[in-house]
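Ticket #4471: structure export looks truncated?
Reporter: QA, pipeline team
Priority: medium

Steps to reproduce: submit the single chain below to the structure queue and open the exported record.
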Amino acid sequence: MEQILDILIVVFAVLGGFFGLLGSFGLLKLNDPVSRLHAPTKTSTLGVGAILLASFFHSWGYDHHGSSHELLILMFLLVTAPVTANFIAKVHISRHTKPEDLPSPGEDRLWATHMQPEENGDAPQQQG
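Actual output as written to the record:
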């Protein structure tokens, strides 16, 4: 049983290192911000997640207690990575596109990235 646990820990640690290195390399080498979205939010998330799982299995197997800290950090990472990607994408859209170059927003009548409601005549109604 101990050999299987050692193999599991090593596999997760090596996978975590590989994905972390791949994500860092992608962040440095990819050309534009939209391409760079995938490096930190996909591969680095997998890398850190694998390292956290290796740490969890180590504490469970050798310290004989499961640590919930690693799982909580992993959950936090899985929640915040898409938010980071969304912010990077909005900055890229805001800096590199003009409102007239964007497709029609449909029922919303405006793009939140470029226009404020006051600019489009859709001022929010004040309740009082």
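Status: closed, not a bug. The export was complete when the record was re-opened. Leaving a note from the reviewer for reference: The CA atoms of residues 22 and 103 lie 34 Å apart.
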